[in-house]
Each structure stands twice: as structure tokens, then as C-alpha cells.
Amino acid sequence: MKKLLLSKLDEWLTTLSETQRIILPIKQTDQVNFGVYAPGAEVSLETLRTVKSAKDAFFPQVENMMNFRSEGKSISVETVPLEEEDFILIGVRGCDEKSFEILDRVFLSDPFDPFYAARRKHATIVTLACSRPDENCFCTNFGVDPTNPKGDVTSWIVDGTLYLTGNTEKGEALIASLEDANDEPVAAQQNKTREILEKLPFAHLDLNGFDGDHLMEKFSSSKWADLSEACLGCGTCTFVCPTCQCYDIRDYDTGRGVQRYRCWDSCMYSDFTLMAHGTNRPTQVERFRQRFMHKLVYFPSNNDGTYSCVGCGRCLVKCPQNLNIVKVIKALGGDRNDN
Amino acid sequence: MQRELMERIRALMDKGVADQVLAWKRGEFFYDTEPAILTKDELGEMVYDSFCGPNLSKYLIKEMPKIENKILALIKPCDSYSLNQLITEHRIDRDKVYVIGVGCKGKIDVDKIRAKGVSGITGVDENGDKITVHTLYGDTTLDRKDVLLGKCLFCKGKEHRIADETVGESEDTSEGSDRFEMVKKLEQMTPDERFSFWRKELSKCIRCNACRNVCPACSCVKCVFDNPNTGVQNKAAANEFEENLFHIIRAYHVAGRCTDCGECSRVCPQGIPLHLLNRKFISDINELYGTYQAGECAGQRHPLIDYTQEDSEPSIVHERGNNG
Amino acid sequence: MPMNQEWKPKIVAFCCNWCSYAGADLAGSSRLSYPADVKIIRIPCSCRLNPLFILRAFQRGADGVILCGCHPGDCHYSTGNYYARRRMTALFGMLSYLGIDSRRTRVEWVSAAEGAKFAETMNDFAKTIYALGENVKLEDLRCKEN
Amino acid sequence: MQKIGVFVCWCGSNIAATVDVKAVANAMRSEPGVVYSTDYQYMCSENGQNLIKDAIRDYKLDGVVVCSCSPRMHEATFRKTALSAGLNPYMVEIANIREQCSWIHKDMEEGTQKAMVLARAAIAKVKKNAPLTAGTTPVTKRALVIGGGIAGIQTALDVADAGYEVDIVEKSPTIGGRMAQLDKTFPTLDCSACILTPKMVEANQHENIHLITYAELENVSGFVGNFTARIKKKARYVDETKCTGCGICTEKCPSRKGLNAFNMGLNTRGAVYIPFAQAIPNVAVIDTENCLHFKTGKCGICQKNCSAGAINFEQKEEILERKYGAIIVATGFRPIDASAFDEYAYTQSKDVVTSLELERLMNAAGPTGGVLLRPSDGEHPKEIVFIQCVGSRCSKDAAKGKEYCSKICCMYTAKHAMLIREKYPDTNVHVFYIDVRTPGKNFDEFYRRAAEQYGVDYIKGMVGKVSVEGKKLHVQGSDLISNEQVHIDADLVVLATAIEPDPTARSIGTMLTASMDTNDFFTEAHPKLRPVESPTAGIFLSGVCQGPKDIPETVAQAGAAASKVIGLLSKKELVGNPCVAHANELLCNGCSQCEKVCPYGAITYEDKEVRGPEFRGTKRIAVVNEAICQGCGACTVTCPSTAMDLKGFSNNQIMEEVDAICR
Known about the structure:
The complex is a heterotetramer of chains A (339), B (324), C (146) and D (663). With 339 residues, chain A is of the alpha+beta class. Helix content of chain A is 30%, strand content 22%. Chain A has eleven helices and twelve strands. Chain A has an eight-stranded mixed beta sheet, with helices on both faces. In chain A, strands 5-4-12-11 form a four-stranded antiparallel beta sheet, with no helix packed on it. The longest helix of chain A is centred in the last third of the chain and has 19 residues, at 284-302. Chain B folds into three domains: 1-109 and 153-177, no CATH class; 114-147; 178-324, no CATH class. Helix content of chain B is 31%, strand content 15%. Chain B contains eleven helices and nine strands. Chain B has helices at residues 2-14, 59-63, 77-88, 110-115, 181-188, 191-202, 210-214, 240-254, 263-267, 275-289, 316-319, and strands at 20-26, 33-39, 46-47, 71-75, 97-102, 121-127, 130-135, 138-143, 165-167. By secondary structure, chain D is an alpha/beta fold. Chain D has five domains: 4-127, Rossmann fold (3-Layer(aba) Sandwich), CATH 3.40.50; 142-234 and 317-332 and 502-569, FAD/NAD(P)-binding domain (3-Layer(bba) Sandwich); 248-305, no CATH class; 336-500, 3-Layer(bba) Sandwich (FAD/NAD(P)-binding domain); 581-647, 2-Layer Sandwich (Alpha-Beta Plaits). Chain D has 19 helices and 34 strands. In chain D, strand 6 (142-146), helix 7 and strand 7 form a beta-alpha-beta unit. In chain D, helix 7 (150-161) packs across helix 8 and helix 13 (409-423) packs parallel to helix 14 (443-453). The longest helix of chain D has 20 residues, at 108-127. Chains in contact: A-B, A-C, A-D, B-C, B-D, C-D. At the A-B interface, helix 8, strand 11, strand 12, helix 10 and helix 11 of A face strand 2, helix 7 and helix 9 of B.
């Protein structure tokens, strides 16, 4: 185990940033999001929950895929180079780290996504353990240990000191230059945190029944109407979610050609998967159901029981009208069925 | 007050005035309230307390076609402006709504409690001007006025501008604040300072559309930004221009109709002070065309669909100075 | 602002059909010159100008946008320019609020008889835009050359 | 992909001298969608047009761009050309490379580059054009005149003489209006009744004119060429078809309480009455408020004495519904209520009268039989003070009065003063004025005659106060020329009160969606070029309803309005402008904002069942009446959802032009 005084963090980051891009939680006008480090940036590792998740580092909200250039009546195609530069992603919490596993299942299986894969390959991930989970956290339900997250490097903040331990060769190399430390303070903190985790209101959600075997039962439940009644159809939950991975591919006519780009899409939107005939989920009830059926039923039934939720709590905190996945789990989980 | 309100709703339902009520219902936490349409049997779920911030008026639009008789609607003083505006725009049929004006003494913003470093919140006790927050990590006492929703700091007053009856007392929580203070401050900056202020804010935008979808004035059947035929449709801002475009046009489309209900800023997940865009329009309209409050009563004609022959010329924008 | 020697501004002039477009025609038949950077789009009335068109012009690379219509009181449709006047005042106020130089947008009333005024207005506006340089704050780089 | 043809005109050397027309034509050839591009010396010539026609046929063009002079010159020409080759005329766009390019630039390179941009913009636009067809609507060959004063009568006569049916709706029991109340007219001093009554008779006897008196307009729907009006004919309680106008009932009527409105309330009349001797129709009417039969159920003397059996207490009001092609507003004016100006003691003394009251006091058929007597004691007034501009030309911030000049007061006061001095040379006449305004044929001569030959005492200055002192009226004013206070003990004070639109005008304006100014005068479609038309198509303006004017002006305007009406009614059908607004019903929110900015009242709303991806069910949507819409586009910008768009200048068309120009 290595250690670094938080007061020396900036110095370390500055040195690292000379050779690699660093992405970590940065505060901008009161909000903390993952962003590219530049000396002087207001780094905020202590923030439990960034507004957006860490997924942007691999799957940005908007990215260019190819360009078409038109000259008179002819058109030429230009490819966009992949991002092949190493970078470091620091401050990833256990929940967000878990989300990479879920995203990998989508983007790295067939059809393989080279844009995502390139970034994934070039990243060194430094996770950060949680010591002050809040009432909206429920990651433990999804097999996340927030006191001991994975990644190339795992880190803990205890009393103004950052403790780090390498889990991979890449990780070891990154922290090799730091001072050695003993792991007692970390273990003590972990024990204390685990006690709190047990006491969290959503520590033990009943996820029974969310599987392929009960698909139609959940799908046809009459509770969706009430659950979704207040839904505004905004995309907040999907955009702050670390596991939402839907995107739309769009063409932008620049006047000289076309830029083909992809951008996040939200199943909560009325024009999600819009086709020539219209949409196949015409009401918000259906869109709302789609989102949670996907996370809790369709995805696990196609992915060895892995839920497409990591319990980060962002949707609980950010939904303008306080709708969220916990309410859905509580309404439909276990043997709680209709009627 | 919650009990008094519930009894009154029950009595109105018993009288046959309506069989449903648009209200708030209790969620997982004491602070987590959810807009809901409740029948008499579901009234037990209803809640009315310091955390019922959401403006319910817009929900009436989608209920309109379903209502045969009437629906009861709980409307706070500030929400009553939005309701009037929607009636003006024929989105809500006044005859189908029985408006219960509910008293309001300012609503608490749980995000502001969190912003004070309080986490793991499990409960709150209110004691007059103070609130005590219970958390997994101990208790904290805060001044109530420090954690009120942004919109409550610029409260439009305790009057309900539309109501069939009122239940409960209201209080003006504005404490004489000038809601245009920040607009004026921005106007006094240099153009580059203003530009950088808005870049810092708008670059956080994730185009979740929460501001638009919650906005009672943004009630278009189909928004221009969702319509592939408008030439401005997009699902995410590809660059700074599109971030600006969305917010300029959104504010422009509600100019004259925006009641300054503050919902846009309340719901923004990135804390962008969107109301400052709307307030700029309100401030300019007040200054150039006379003070106007959208939604003060139903049937108003707003200043941007009106004119006088003596109106000032657009060059006034430049002449007023500090415009570069 | 770094000034490219080659740089020529793009200026879009929206002109109402009845007064200002005719005023522009008169400037032409009177052989009153103004910079070729100004390109005119004919609209029926100044009230037809949607703020979306102005923003679109900036997005596509315009450096200045001007609206010309009948003088207040002389609108072919009686009241169109009165509405245009309020709308543009509101929009320009917002653009300025966002830090965009208010001199990049302008409204001028030019009658069908004011060919000279049309040419003067365009000369003056072009001069202003040359002095302001390239529109950077409201540009969309995708639409610029390479 | 569309097939666009581009035709670059040289206009001799007008274009070709500063634009390399061949280069433009060549460059356009490689634009996407362009299948044919050429240049020619004079595109508007017959050969040039044939070139276009042949290309449309040979290349099956579905869009044409002509790079030439201003569309204001030859757009119509080229549209006709396209039509004759079988292409919809609205698939033609003009790139103005002469007035807006070759004529203003000197450098060939610069001119050529700009011409190319303008051509590309036109190509971009034409790609978004859609074929448009102008709608036609039939015209109902009948006109409705609202108001039976001199304006309405004259318009009706002129329209009727051209062979069209005209209905005059008059709210009072007789036609004639204000002019019937006047004694003499300026500047000729001929008797008002002598020149008006023959016209009234003519209107009554004209086979094409139908008088609907004692009637009010209830509702108007429809649009130019196709209005439907609901007219409420109030009950007279006298059968118009039987009454001979003998007047016996009016003499026998025991009730004498009703104020005689024709005489400005200066005397009373019976409850059954004929407004004045020459009233048309010459039919009595019962005023139920004063009629003993209606009040007590007794009496019935008139019925007993009517040999024609015309009295019918059971008569009911009647609703007429008629169709019209054109509507003429001739609602006229009334003097403002002088009691607001109590500094002149109007409510305190009967001897303070308005000018219109003076007309009646001087009229042979008036309450005094034409002898000028003080209303209070019936004595001859020896000192008379006229006060000008009472309620006219007030400052904007004044609590009362009008900002405008009532225009007729200077002249009628000169007339009154002159007539009094002529008839009663021993009476002194003083006129307090701000300015004397006499533009008009023989007007100034008339005024000078009053002042110079008749010795009328014109005092430049205003009266501060009139106070009642015994039998006298103490007038305190200032003479601005001698700069001294003036005190006059007058026997009679005459107030030249401002005139204002008849109070019914506002509701009629609303019914007709005809715009009005803040003073409730109707607004004209164009203040200089279309002074007798309302901006709302099919609505015409006659007389003072549009603004203060005297009789000759009123008659001239009435005739002008009539000629416009005749022009409209003579059309077989109305061909609309196809470049009109149109609401996409799937997108429309029904918010009513567009309706508020439409200057023509072309937008209405209806509840309609729609089936779209966002909404299924019945919703309120805007409907544009294409016959009324003039295509300004105000509604399109008001519409936040872009549901409202304008054909020919659609959002997409303009955006494409913007894109092409900024490329």
C-alpha cells in the first residue's frame, strides 16, 4: 500500500498530467462532474456522487463517428481516428466501477464498438472507496463493495491522506513512486463503513422475481401506470445513470457535407427509437416501463443475471419529481405482484 | 394543515364535486414527495408539508381529456400564476378544475441541505425558523430560510390568483428581495464576463430536458427541439452553439408567458440558474413595456403579442450600454 | 481579435417585401453601392423573421444579421413591424445578456423610397461588422471551413 | 432528387457587365439537383421565355431558378412562363442579381461570386418549394351598410346604382343620422334638410336598397365575399306596412315625458312618436319606457285613434339572417358628453349648450321654431360666447378629452356666429379659440367673412371658467394676443364639444374583427393608399367612423368606399393569395397566441379529432381562413411549436436560404 497526503495531491496530479490526460471529479459552479484535470482545477474527490457518472470517460455524450464531404455533386467519406492515447481516470466509486462491467457487456460484445474499446484500453482506473454513504446508496444490493472497489488502483481517503494499492501491473506502475504505507487505517475505516452500509434504508432490497422467468408478469403489472404517473419524460435519470448506454446516430448537415455523430438518447423521450411509422411506445407509461424492465429484467436475463443497475442513487437524487428505481423495485420486487 | 386539507378534500369528494385530486404523495423519505392523482381510497397516501415544492399545474393538461366531471387540484400561491396562464392558453379548461388554494410558507430544498455538507439524511424536525436534520452521522440544526427553494426566496406573495377555496395560511417568504438583482448584476458585467458566466453554466447542460418538461409554459404538443422538420432538432448539444441555441430559444418561446415559477432551476440536475434567462426577458419587458406579471389573471394578452406605436426601437439594447 | 487579412464577413439582411426589399432595389437602380458581403433574403414582412432564422445564420457562419422593414405605422399589413420591433428588442436583449455583442444584430426601417438610406445602412452595418471581426461567440465550428 | 433548371439573364449589359453570367451558369450546373443551367441575353423576352418553357418540357424540370432582375419586376412574368409549360407557377424562384448585385458592385469577380451565392440561395429555396394553388371563393352580390347617416346613405346609393342589392341597418327608427339634425351647412349656408331629405327619399325608393331601421347588428361571421350577418329588428309596436305616418297617434298620446332625442333632449315628445317630420321610414314608434300601455296596461289611445290599425302592442323583435359579400361601416359619431367639462358650467345652467343643441335651437323645426331663445327663460340672448376645442386637442395625460382635433368645430362655429349676427345684429358674439383651422374649399374665406364682415369677436385664448351669476353666465378667459384677462357676462355659452365615434362602433369592430385605434375610430388598411378599406378584407369604411370629417369629405369617402365595394361585388369569384399561413394540426397547441397577432382575424379555432404520434383525441386547433389571410407571417413567429407556417415563405425555405448564403 502507498500513501499520499491530500495536500500533495495537486502536485502529484500536475506531474502525472504532463504525460497523460487525467479525468477526475472537478467542481464547476457548485456542481461536481468528471472532467479533465488542469493545474488549478477544483478537484473534489470527497464528493460522494458526481452529477454525471464516470461513464463519460469511455462513452461521451456526443462523439463524432465519420464525416462526409460534398464537392458539387460528389461526396467523399472521411473516417474519424480512434482515441488511442493513455489516460488516467481517478476517483471512481465502487458503483461506477461496476458500471464499466455492464457497459463492457454491451459495447465489447458483438457488434464491437471500436470507439468505446479504444478508450477502455487506454485507461488506468483509480477507484476510490466510500466512507460516508448516504441514504440514497444501495449498491450493496448489486454485489458492489464500496469499501473495496476494484480498478487498476484502489484508493481510500483517511484523515487527509490518500491510501492507494495497485491491483494490476498498470496500476502498480502508476503509484510506484509514492511513499509506502501500512493498511491499518484503511481496514479500520472499512469496518466502520460496513456497519453504516448495513444500516442504510435500502441495504436489503428484494430483487427476487426480476429475471427472465417472470418477464410477462412484471411487464403486465398494472402498477406501472401509478409508478410513472408523475414522470415528466425528461432524460435526467438516463443521463446521470452510469449504466444507461442508449445512443442515437445522427447526421448533421454542415453545409459542406455531413458529420455523422452519436449522442446519448433516452428511452424516456417520446422520439426514442422513432421510426417512419412512429414510435412503438406511444405513452410515458410504456417508456417508463421500458427503462426499468430493461435494467431489472431484460438485461439480467440476457447477461447471466447481471442487473443493469449499480445502486449509485443518482436517479433518486436527481429525478425532478422523485420517481426512481427503488420505488419500482419495492413495488414489483419479490412476490409483490399485481392484484 | 395536512389533516385539515385531507378532510376538506374528502368532504368535497363526498359532496360529489370531484372524485380525484391532483396532489403530492409520500415517497420513500420524508422529503421525497411525488405528484400524484389520488382517488378517495388513495387519499391516505397524500402529503402536504414543507417538501411539496413541485408545481402541479402542468399535470392538469394531460388530465383534461380524461376528466368528465371535475378534478380537485392543490395549488400553491406561486403555482396559481401558472394555472392562470394555462387557462389563458386554453390548455386547461377552468370548468373542469376545482382549485383548492393551499397555504404555503416556503418549501425546503433538500439539495440545499445536502450542499451544506449534510449527508445520510434520515429526518427533519421543523421548529419555526430553525430545522433540525437527523442523519446517519448525527444531527445538524439549520436556519429554515437558508434551505428554502430558490424560488421561495423570490416569493410572489401569499395571494392565490385563482382558487375556488383556500385551505391554510400562507406567508410571503421573499423578505423584500429584488428578484432582478442578479439580472442587473449580470447586465453590469462586461460582455466577455457575461459570456464567460453563461459558458460556465450552460456548458454543464446535459440536455436532459427537465427544465423544458417541467415548465408549465413549455406545453407544446411537440417541441421544436424534438421535431425533425424544424432544422433545430437535436438530442444533445454537439457544441457550445447548440447549448446556447437551446437555452436562448427555450427562454424566448416562454417570454411573456413565463410566470417565473422557478421550476426550471429547481429541477436542473446541474444547478444551472435557468430562471436568470427568463428573468432577463421579464425584466426587459417590465422596463420597456410596463410591468407585467404573466398569470396574474386568466385571459391576459402578453406583451410580446401586443405593441404600442411608441415602443422603443431594438437599438435600445445597444444604447442601454454595457453591451460591448 | 486576430484579424485575418483575407477575412470577409458574412452579413445577412432580411428585408420585408413591401418597403425594404423595394428600397434595396431602388439602391440598385440608383447605382448606390454597398459591400458584396451583404446578402438579402426577402420575407413578406418584418414580422416573418423568426429568431430561429437569426440564430441559424450565426450558426452557419454569419457575422452580422440585420432586419429591415417598413417604418412603424407604414406596415403593409398594418401591424407586422410593431410585433417585429418587440420581438427583436427582446431577442437582442437576450443575446447581449449572453455576452454577444449587440452590434452584430440590428433593425432598421427603410421605406421603398429610401434607396439611399438602404445603401447607407448596409455600408454602416458592414463597417461595424468589419470592426467587430469574426463572430466567435455564436459560431458552430462544424459549419466553418474545415 | 429534384430537377432544377437555372436560367441566368444578362439583361443586356445590365447584369453581364459586372457578373460573369457564363461562369454563374457553369457553376450552377454542378450544384446538386441542377440538371440544366444556361444563360441568355434577355430572359424576359419571348425567346428567353421560350428557352425556359422548352427546358421545363425537355428536362422535366420541377423547379426553376431565374437569375435576373428583382422579383418585383418579373416574378409574375416567369411564373406565367412556367405555368404555360405545365409547371406550377410557385415552383419558380428569382435570384435578384441585377438590383441587388450587378448594379451595386463594380468588380467583376466580386459581382460574379455574389451572384453565385444568390443563385445557390434561390436553388436551395426552390428545392423546398411546394406547388401552390390559389383558392377561389364565390361572392355574394349584396352589401350591408351599417349606419343610415349621410355616409351610409351615399354608399348605399352608389352601390345600388351599380346594380347590387344593399341593406342599410340603422339603429334608430329613421335614417338621416346627424346631418338631419343640422340647421345649415358650411360654407354655403344651405339648409341641411333640403339637401339630405331627397337622398333619404331616394334611398327609400331605390329598388336595390332595403332599409332595416330600428335594428342592430347581432353577429357577423364569414369572410370577404361570404359574410353572414344576424340583424335584430327591434319591436316598434307599429306595423311598418300599415302605418301611413299621419301622426295622429303622436298628437293624441297622453304621455309627454319622453325627451326628444332628435332635438337633443331640449323638449319632450309623446311615447308614440315619429322622430321628425321627414323621417324615413315615416312610421311611428312606441317608446315603451314612457308608454302608459306598457307601464300600466291601460291607455291604448293611439290604437283607438289609428285608422290604419297599425298599432300592435304584441309585436316581437325579429331576427334576420342575411348573406353579404361586403360590409360598409358607417357608424358615425356623437358629441362627447360635455358634463365632464364642468368648468364651463354645462350641468349648472341650461344656458350653457353644445353646438349640436344650438343647431336645434336655431332650426325652424326645433323646439323654439327657429327663434334663438335661451333655454332657461326663453329670452333673446344678447351676449353669446362660443368656446372652442371643448374636449378636443387635449394633452395625452389629461384626465379627460381627446387628443385629436375634431376638425369640424371651427367651421360650424363660424357658421353659427355668422348666422346669429345676421339674424340678430344686436347680439354680440365672442369666440374663444386655440387656433382657427380652415383648410378646405372656401373655408378660410367663410371664416374671415364671419370675423371681418359680421363682426364676430374672435379671441385667441381659452376660457378658464364659466360661473352662473344670477341670469348671467360669467365667462372668465384670457386673450393671448393682448395678454390680458377677459371677463364677459354672457346670456348664452356654446361649447364646441369634440366628436367621438358612436358608442356602438367598438362592438361592431369586434364583430367584424376590424381593427380600431385607441380612440375607437376604425383603422384603414393603409393610411395613404387604402383609406376606405379596413385591414380586414371585405370591410369598408365610410364617414366619421374612420376619423373626424365634414359632410363633403364624408360623401367623397362614401363614394370611394362604394367604388371599392362595387369592384369587389363585380367579381365572379375571389382568387386568393396562395402564400397564406397554414396550421399543422398535429403540432398546434390551440394556445390562441397567433389569433391575437393576426391583423385580419383570419384565424379561428375549432375542436378537432387528431391522430398523431404525440396526441390522439380531440384538441383545439387553429384554422386559417385562406380567403382572409394576407400572408404576413406574424402568426408563424408567435407560434412556439412552428405549427403555423407560411406557404411560399416557409420556415424551411427561409432556413435553406440562410444556409446557402452563409455557406
